[in-house]
Amino acid sequence: MRRVNHKLFAWVCSPLLIVSVALGLRLVWLFDHAPWYDDYRRLITDAPNPDTGSYHEVALVLLRYWNKPGQALVEMPEATLSIIIRAPGYPLIMAILYALFGVKPVWIVIVQVFASVFNCYLVILALRRISSPVGASVGGWLFALNPMLIDYTQMILTETLFVLGATLIIYLFAGFRSLPSPNFPRAGFGIGIVVALATLIRPSPLWLIPVFGIFGILARTLSAKARALWLVGYLIGVLALFLPWSVYNRVHYGSWRLTVAGELFLLDVTGQVLVKRQKPIHEMRAVLEAEAFALMRKDGLDPNRDIFERGRYYRAVSLQYIRQHLGDFAYYTLRGMFFFWRGTGEPPKTGGRWINVSSPVVELWYKAYYLTYIVALGVGLWFSWGAKQQRWWVALFAVTTLYFMLSAGCLAYPRFRLQAFAFSLPVIAIGLDTVRQRLNPRAA
Prior knowledge:
By secondary structure, this protein is mainly alpha-helical. It has one domain. The protein is 73% helix and 0% strand. It has helices at residues 2-12, 15-33, 39-45, 51-65, 69-75, 80-85, 89-101, 106-128, 133-144, 147-153, 159-178, 184-201, 209-217, 224-253, 261-274, 281-298, 310-324, 326-341, 360-384, 391-408, 418-439.
């Protein structure tokens, strides 16, 4: 009987089984959603999330005007805002798929489904560098069964590929911490490239770049020379991807700025705080944006020509109101941090006959998964802190999650949790190993 239980346990922990389940769930969801039917309307014009349209607009600009994007401002003026707030990584992938298969958005969804399956396997590989095979399997199952993550593979949004980038960061950090004598410049360069790539896909971690640099030089006990070599490699890796992006904007738009996504999001947060979340985001954006444009014209700038300079004025208008209503901003930021973790997440926005909002099975899946995840995360945080050699991972999760919570402000939608999801898995795996060690040292 003990041998049978051991075989069953080994089978449940098998990476092949976990990845197969991840593939099966995503394919079932894909075929139920069937995005190949009228894909342009369902995935772009009537997409579940309005952000999809802006990624599509930038993809078309890169596809048709890549060497003369200034012309796009004349022929596609509706794409101006999208150009300045969307980092080029995700739209570039879309543009490549459009060039290969035509403007058929369904191919983006198909690529994301298989990218998510590969991500599941990468989670297991990364966690095996950090914890035991059992801890790695638990992390793999939490990834494979995450319903909100699966739902977002069906939408043209950055969540799927950003989580893959975050997992790559964890994988490379785990290797750097575990190798006995790594090549420090090469290790730093690899992590820098991946951090920059994740930021090119979704610019939200832009201000985490120096934070990852600090964590890198504190990842293990090193001499001052080794830390310097790692940091130099890291900075070169980041600049290797950022400089072409910045130079491209300078040549074609007259600005070294990478994006104004953060400033526009701050403007949206400001608008929502001023009306206490009682009006739609786009209405308040129009009001505050008009103020920013008036300031630009006063300084002799044209908002429709000096498009990247909008960021300075978005920030100036926002900071003016933040200083006047500091208490309200503090309240709504704390409220947003609470809603960041509240509830099981957004109900499925895709699917079909089997997978939909009204399905009791899907509702149970969401609730059971989220309860399991929160309990596992709580246990992981409590016990992983006791493993002194692994506190680095706890600190990495805490800092990155706090960053995503604060930067979301009052607009902390549950889907923003996915940005921190990958960073929570090492904590859960380490915590589980610590519990097993205490309960049964020999088995652990």
